[in-house]
Amino acid sequence: MDLSKMKIAIFTRSMNYSLYKISNNTLTLPFKHYRLTYTTAQGYLDKILEYDIDYAINIDEDAFVVDNLAILDLLEYCIKEEIVNCGIRDGGVLQIRYGNPLVTNPFFNIFNVKKIKENYSKSQVDDCLKKDIDYDNLLPNNLPYKYEISNNYEPFYPFFLWLNINHKVLYLEGKQHNDNYSTILYNHKGEQMLFHSWFSREYGVDQFHTNRINDLYRSCTNVVIHFSILEKAKIESEKLINQVLIPVVLPIRRIVKKMIK
Question: Could you tell me if 137 and 86 are in contact, meaning their C-beta atoms sit under 8 angstroms apart?
Answer without folding.
Answer: no
